[in-house]
Amino acid sequence: MNNTSPFATPAEAVARLEACRLFEGSPKEFWPRFAQTCAELVQAPAAAVVVRVGEGWRLAAGWPTAREFPLPLAGPVFGPLAERALAEGLAAAATNATGGLGLLLVTLSTGDGGETCLLAVALARTSRDEIVAAGSLLRLASDTPLLYQRQRLLEKTKREVEHFAQALEILAATNAHTRFLAVAMSLVNELAARFHSTRVALGWTDGAYVRVQAISGTDRFEKRMTIVQRLEAAMEEARDQDEEIVWPALSESTAITRDHAAYAEAERVPFLLSVPVRVEGEARGVLTLERSETAFGEYDALALRVIADQVSRRLDELRKQDRWFGARWAVAFRTWCAGFLGPKQTWIKVGAIAGAVLLAIAVFVPFPYRVDGTFIVRADALLHLPAPFEGYLAEVDVRPGDLVKQGDVLVKLDTSDLLVQLAAAQAELQRHASEADKAEADRQLSELRVARAQQAESQARVDLVRYRLSRAEMRAPFDGVVVEGDLREKIGAPVKTGDILLKVSQLKGLYVEMRVVEKDIDQIQNSHTADIAFASRPEDTFKVTIDRIEPSAMPDRDGNFFLVHGLLDHRADWFRPGMSGVAKIEAGHRSLLWMATHRLVDFLRLKLWW
């Protein structure tokens, strides 16, 4: 082979293929390398791995990566060729007349039934024998992805066995102790030795926070030390996310590592690993490892997770046994209740008494009851301003939310076409007037009548154009606020006669229109007041006096509802028509039992009556 050739020698290509079969890296690194090796094996300018996704094909990896694959991997030619390759294991297309490249597809064995993979190779071949030879050579390499997958599975199995063996050894070492702190110290020291860590710390949940319980190589430490507080912050970061955190973060990690970064920078720790200690799916503690030389990887996190899962139950039980005096007081109170109420089933009796008290309160003690609903603020006057004639928007002086006064100019329409029409109509009017005068002077009665009629028609056209010119400026009919019609971005756009351009509402006479579902309307027949909270300001509530209830129900997608009109006792300056929120209408006093069961009782009455 020429020394200037961009391809590797056959011996080098075969060696690289063997290296691919024994490759231990990630799939993201394997597939481009495999594509390059296959291309070098047949001295092809480009190769790619394509995967079937739904009804189409997606490029998974390619070589060279600096540019796209030179042939189309979709379309009427590629589809049938790919199906033939899947059926026969190999398929080839004729040499491209323009680029001098042919397409060779080889089915790849991946061991994954959920995907269908093909190796696409662009060949600079001219004879059928060369294409067949290249295809036969590539079919020998088609099982490389399967061997790679099996090699990864074997390595994963070996690591899992090692992790479980290591976890059992550490569990055996910690079982020699019976107190929580002793077990914790034994655990962190064992982890420091086995993971070659400079420091290992165990934190455990104490109330709402994580507190450091043990640090390797340290029998005692001051919990108020700055380093301990920073370490606890990093542990809480791992517990809150319930996720293993590696610092520096791995490329595929999405975890937040702010507190880990702060701790690493403050204490000059180059590498950190935090793993939650879970009990029944809940993170009760956190193990944090530190290194100064070697970075933690995915396999370190997996190994530490296995160990944490094995020791978590014992740590949790010992933590409960080493309780503080408050927990011991709770046990003493339970013992006193047992002696007072009876020798057996103490907590059942206590629960029965508490339940009886709660039931009595629920049945006999009345509480305020309010019916829930929604509301919207309405105005007594809401004016729609339509376009008076067909034309174009020339100027918009307001937008929704602007306060306007009576007579303010809101919108202007373009009058250039109307001015042209006015000039033409006036000229036509003048012409017909001249014709009428001439006919009158010549005593031609019939022509005079025609000219007078045409003159009247032209005058009407002039009056119409002048009327439209007077309507070109749309003004506010009263003091209020613009509630709809943002036309700032539509200047120059055409409008048709009758198109609603703006809606202007008065700020006086605002009232509340509440919606109450039909099944609750009987509860508010005698109600007079309600409270409302706006969706924009839920922290504030406002009193409403009920004015009237509409006598007929309104249909809705979720069922019928009634409209309840209310007057605002207090109106703030920021109230606007169309604002909505939640309304609670006073409906007297009811017991808690009635509140909890009246829906079910009503349902059963409707379903079971006869």
TrEMBL record:
SUPFAM superfamilies: GAF domain-like, HlyD-like secretion proteins
A GO CC term attached to the entry: cell envelope
Localization: Cell envelope
Annotated ranges, domain CzcB-like barrel-sandwich hybrid: 384-504
Keywords: Coiled coil
Keyword Coiled coil: yes
Coiled coil location: 422-456
Ranges for domain GAF: 185-314
PANTHER family listed in its UniProt record: BLL5650 PROTEIN, EFFLUX SYSTEM COMPONENT YKNX-RELATED
Protein name (database record): Efflux RND transporter periplasmic adaptor subunit
Species the sequence originates in: Horticoccus luteus
